[in-house]
Amino acid sequence: MTTSTAAPTDSTARFQPTWESVSTHTVPSWYDDAKLGVFLHWGLYSVPGWAPQVDDIQQLLRDEGPEAMLRANPYAEWYRSSMQIEGSPTQRHHRELYGDAPYDDFITAFDDGSRSADLDELAGVCERAGARYVVLTTKHHEGFTLWPSAQRHPVKGAYRAERDIVGELTGAVRARGMRMGLYYSGGYDWPWNDAVIARPADTTLAVPADPAYNAYATAHVRELIDRYAPSVLWNDVCWPAGGDLAALFAHYYNTVDDGVVNDRWLQPSGPRNRLTDAVTSGLGELVQAAWQHLPERWKSLTFPGANHYDFNTPEYARFDEIRDKKWEATRGVGHSFGANRNERPRDIVTTTELVRMLCDVVSKNGNLLIGIGPGPDGTVPDQQVAPLRG
Q: Could you tell me if residue 99 is left (phi over 0), alpha (psi between -120 and 50 degrees) or otherwise beta?
């Protein structure tokens, strides 16, 4: 299992805070052999637990373009942004059920539910699925953390769960012989800049450009490393500009001697100001207008790789060929990672489909990270668990 020690900070450390040093890290055998992991998306979005019915997010993007995909986003974990897109199905749903209630009204229901959640049973769901590792969302794009961070959100204050879900679930997962990985959304923190992602340009403009955000995110990830020593450090979207990412990776590898990082750490380059934001907006409008005429290879949900990473993470997609470098296919059992009570039985993969998917991915040097979404009380709907049971 993962071992953790106080990370050396001098020249005796195995990994120095340079890209040259960090790039010498190799994928540990445990991850190379893991084959199957379970991805847990759990947060305030678990309370409404709703997104529109969409058959395939990649197909929707290819056929109708990014604005249509964002408007009908099937990812329930994007509820905070989707509910603010004028005329979107999620906005209509929210107004019908909750009126004008703000998103943060879900905090009480989440804390009430998670307070009594059986985290050992949640770990058991993953173990019985045959998973060798588990990855938990510690902070998704909504900015709400599942551990008692010492960092105060500049807009929200102590914006965190009442319970140390990260710490307790980490203990439960490891007690069952599995590895624990931690997801963190470094690219987005919607309350930070009141971001709503409705247009192609918003996917870039929503990344906070404030240097203080890099410091905040870095402090968060260092807390996660030092407190919980995750075997997988799984960042999403990108990493904010500034700071010293090589130093963060070196700290992680020196602390967790058999840890791995994913590929979604690319940092924005170049200046960010009103002029560059206007150019980005203009280019986004051009992309939307010309979408039907763009090459098919451009019409997919992809994440460019960073300076260094241990594995790629195609989302709702798989590679067609055997890869030399380790990779990880990730998707939910349905069309959402977070719990979506609006999903139909036909939206959920069957056990047979899941087994074939796993065999295909593993045969090409990949792992499969399959996502399920607990409700606020930590229970996973039987519809999601059924294909994992076999």
A: left
Tokens of 379: 């229970």
Q: pLDDT digits over 155-164, tens only? A: 999 999 999 9
pTM listed for this prediction: 0.95
Q: Which one has a higher pLDDT value, 59 or 147?
A: 147
Domains parsed from the chain with CATH numbers = 36-389 (3.20.20.80)
